[in-house]
Every structure is written in C-alpha cells, then in structure tokens.
Amino acid sequence: MVAQGELWLLETPNYKRRPVLVVSRNEAIPVLSSVVVAPVTSTIRTIPTCVLVGPDEGIDHDSVATFDNMGPSGHYVICSALSALADC
Question: What is the pLDDT of residue 83?
C-alpha cells in the first residue's frame, strides 16, 4: 500500500512510467479508490510549490515534485515504489 510522502512510478494509459509523490493523507488512503499525487519533473523551478527530489530519493537525476499539477491517480496504475521523503 502507498503512503504519504512516498515516491512511486505511475504507469499512464500510453504505458509511459512517470514518478509521482503521494500526497493523500495516510488515514484516508485505505478507503479511497484513488490517491492524490504530485508529478515529478526534471524542469526545476525554485518556487514554493516545488519540492526538490533526486538520487537520494530514488530519482535518477535532480528533479522536483510539483504541487501546481496535483491530481488523483485516476485511471493510472501505481506500479512500483522508489522511496520516501525523509521530512514527511
């Protein structure tokens, strides 16, 4: 089961895998049909809505989890765990 603050790979409908940060509260996850995630991108902007992630978190290069584009996992499949953020 996923947990808040963990980084996972999502498989999108076009079979592209994308890293995401789980944002949903741990208490809510067991009863939800989908979880809220923040996509991870290599386009790094130093703004308050981006959280830096990188090799220490299981991402192959410096990136950010962007809270400007959060959404439910919806039709996507959360397929494999990468790691968890230390400060969550």
Answer: 80
